[in-house]
Automatic annotation (TrEMBL):
Residue ranges of domain HTH cro/C1-type in the record: 12-66
Cited CDD domains: HTH_XRE
Gene Ontology annotations for the cellular component aspect, listed alphabetically: cytosol
SMART domains: HTH_XRE
Pfam families on file: HTH_3
The name this protein goes by in its record: Helix-turn-helix domain-containing protein
Origin organism lineage: Bacteria, Bacillati, Actinomycetota, Actinomycetes, Micrococcales
One Gene Ontology molecular-function label: DNA-binding transcription factor activity
Keyword Transmembrane helix annotated: no
Keywords: DNA-binding
Region Disordered: start-end pairs: 98-120
Protein's UniProt keywords contain DNA-binding: yes
InterPro entries: Cro/C1-type_HTH (IPR001387), Lambda_DNA-bd_dom_sf (IPR010982), TransReg_Diox_bact_type (IPR050807)
Amino acid sequence: MIVLRHEIGEVLRDVRQRQGRTLREVSHSARVSLGYLSEVERGQKEASSELLASICAALDVPMSQMLREVSDRLAEAEGMQVPDTVPNELSEEFRREYGTSAVSAEDLPPHGRNRSVAGK
């Protein structure tokens, strides 16, 4: 089963790590506790929109871009074709700008894969 909070956490962690920043640095900038940010990144806590906005601001990434990357990952995990128009270009731009790498459904950990799509 695909869980949205896991995908959001993975994208946020990817961005932070590729920027070479620590949880402590980002938590301080976002004004959120280190432990809570860690739980968000691990998909254990469902972050509010306000908290996501604060984390994105601390990472200097637009929330719309972060959510677009999450959406593309979810679509891939569900076995859906991501259109060649805006989303793929946006994801490529996101990866260039923020340093995250695209993943296929096979690359996702079991919690990020929709097992019912395995036959596709």
